[in-house]
């Protein structure tokens, strides 16, 4: 197998790093990319693991720039050759980097395959003789992360697989990941994992090989090569420790060609589970297989219950469904958060439409959306949901809500001026932008009488005035106050007054005559 010069790329722009990776056929040119970093601090942390011969570094980067990186690296790793990636206006930076030991530079705006190859060959000539060939098995394994990524991404060749099999010679593989239990903790996940697993590796160093492949803000991933299945079980036991990190592990597989399938079918799901099982030290593929499918949330029913003022029923359903979501762990983290944010929007909009104070509801909504978006576990999200429901119940239970009182008063005024017209609960609810059931509930609460009965009372009071003061026929009075059916008018009148309209008129006239006499 041809020995390759190992290259580390350091640039805060992912597109630049990707572009550099695709400029060359690296292995054919005699090089391989063993790592990437977005700033100098990340690069220094990668060097012990990647052991590069050459570093391509940008100058202007956050946290630690290229000038400081070159100085620090040359103090601790003087044999690593530094090539500067420079823009036109960075001459002072480049000059300073040369002062600290950089070997050459390339202008990024004019970067091309030939110039990149030439500068790498120039840097390779300055590598001390013999350094390139001092690879132990550990170095050989750690230098294969790029080829492993190609297998995962689905564009590896048979040659890639063959070369990996020359290094990973044991029959069993698994992927292992490290997740920080608290993203606010400033810890190096890989270093923490290395400390915890060091005794296991030392005890079985002639039966275990591994290399770290990928690391992002949330998870670091390694591939483990094991001599037997018993070691897989021992490794699982080692990972079940109380620490600042949690481990995730796929099932074992026997061929590197299976790596991409394991990654797609197991790994991606496993990386979501620490959010749900935040207290577990180790999460395996068995945990993923135990997740259950749930019925979809019945949003139509939920919103109807809210519109009808049945808040306790709606919120109880939300609670039950939410806890089942945590148990099933079937949603991705983003889907889980989005579900609750959608609920917050739905509830606050419906309540504001019902007359509750809109500005306060808006503040509550955005407060909880922000909290859920930053939550580190599903249980934390559930806590926020419970607080949200508590706040919504407090709002709903404040019976004398000014907005509701004003709205009901407007409905009363409308009835008083339009009693003689056809009036129905549905028509009035639509006119004042209420759900009909909700208006019925609120009206009864404020007026201590139902909507239709209140309309009838108003109409009959006006009918009594007509019967007493006017001379219109009774049938005409019924129509004037809003009853098109005479018999129905008489029925309602007798129900409310205890006598028929004609008897009421006679009694009123007798009373007037007695007063005159």
From TrEMBL:
Entry-linked CDD domains: REC_YesN-like (cd17536)
GO MF annotations in UniProt: DNA-binding transcription factor activity; sequence-specific DNA binding
4-aspartylphosphate modifications at: 58
Keyword Phosphoprotein among record annotations: yes
Phosphoprotein among keywords: yes
SMART domains, per the entry: HTH_ARAC, REC
Gene3D superfamilies, per the entry: 3.40.50.2300, Homeodomain-like
Pfam family, one: Response_reg
InterPro entries xrefs: CheY-like_superfamily (IPR011006), Homeodomain-like_sf (IPR009057), HTH_AraC (IPR018060), HTH_AraC-typ_CS (IPR018062), Sig_transdc_resp-reg_receiver (IPR001789), Tscrpt_reg_AraC-type_HTH (IPR020449)
Domain Response regulatory, residue spans: 6-123
Name the UniProt record assigns to this protein: DNA-binding response regulator
């Amino acid at each position: 197998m041809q020995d390759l010069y190992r290259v580390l790329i350091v640039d805060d722009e992912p597109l630049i790093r990707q572009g550099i990776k695709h400029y060359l056929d690296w292995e054919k040119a005699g090089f391989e990319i063993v790592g990437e970093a977005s700033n100098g601090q990340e690069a220094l942390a990668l060097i012990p693991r990647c052991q590069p011969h050459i570093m391509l570094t940008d100058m202007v980067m956050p946290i630690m720039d290229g000038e400081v990186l070159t100085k620090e690296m040359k103090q601790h790793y003087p044999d690593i050759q530094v090539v500067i990636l420079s823009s036109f206006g960075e001459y002072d930076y480049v000059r300073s980097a040369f002062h600290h030991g950089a070997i050459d530079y390339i202008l990024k705006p004019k970067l091309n395959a030939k110039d990149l190859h030439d500068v790498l060959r120039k840097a390779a000539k300055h590598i001390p003789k013999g350094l390139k060939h001092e690879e132990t098995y550990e170095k050989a394994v750690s230098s294969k992360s790029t080829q492993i990524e190609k297998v995962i991404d689905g564009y590896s060749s048979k040659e890639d697989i063959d070369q990996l099999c020359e290094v990973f010679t044991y029959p069993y593989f698994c992927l292992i990941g490290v997740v920080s239990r608290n993203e606010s903790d400033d810890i190096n996940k890989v270093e923490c994992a290395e400390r915890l697993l060091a005794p296991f590796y030392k005890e079985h160093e002639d039966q275990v090989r591994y290399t770290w492949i990928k690391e992002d803000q949330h998870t670091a991933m390694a591939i483990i090569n094991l001599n037997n299945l018993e070691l897989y079980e021992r490794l699982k036991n080692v990972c079940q420790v109380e620490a600042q990190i949690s481990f995730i592990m796929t099932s074992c597989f026997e061929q590197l060609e299976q790596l991409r399938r394991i990654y797609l079918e197991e790994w991606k799901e496993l990386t979501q589970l620490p959010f749900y099982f935040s207290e577990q030290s180790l999460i395996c593929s068995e945990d993923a297989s135990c997740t259950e499918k749930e019925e979809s949330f019945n949003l139509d029913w939920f919103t109807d219950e809210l519109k009808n003022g049945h808040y306790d029923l709606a919120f109880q359903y939300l609670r039950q469904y939410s806890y089942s979501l945590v148990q099933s762990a079937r949603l991705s983290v983003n889907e889980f958060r989005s579900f609750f944010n959608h609920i917050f929007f739905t509830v606050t909009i419906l309540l504001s439409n019902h007359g509750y104070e809109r500005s306060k509801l808006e503040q509550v909504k955005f407060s909880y959306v922000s909290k859920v978006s930053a939550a580190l576990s599903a249980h934390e999200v559930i806590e926020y949901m419970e607080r949200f429901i508590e706040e919504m119940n407090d709002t709903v239970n404040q019976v004398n809500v000014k907005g509701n009182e004003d709205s009901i008063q407007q409905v009363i005024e409308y009835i008083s001026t339009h009693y003689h017209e056809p009036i129905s609960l549905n028509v009035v609810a639509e006119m004042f932008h209420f759900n009909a059931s909700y208006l019925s509930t609120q009206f009864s609460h404020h007026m201590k009488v139902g909507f239709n009965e209140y309309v009838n009372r108003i109409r009959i009071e006006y009918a009594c005035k007509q019967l007493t003061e006017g001379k219109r026929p009774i049938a005409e009075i019924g129509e004037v106050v809003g009853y098109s059916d005479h018999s129905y008018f008489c029925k309602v009148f007798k129900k409310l007054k205890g006598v028929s309209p004609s008897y009421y008129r006679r009694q009123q006239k007798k009373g007037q005559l007695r007063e005159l006499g």
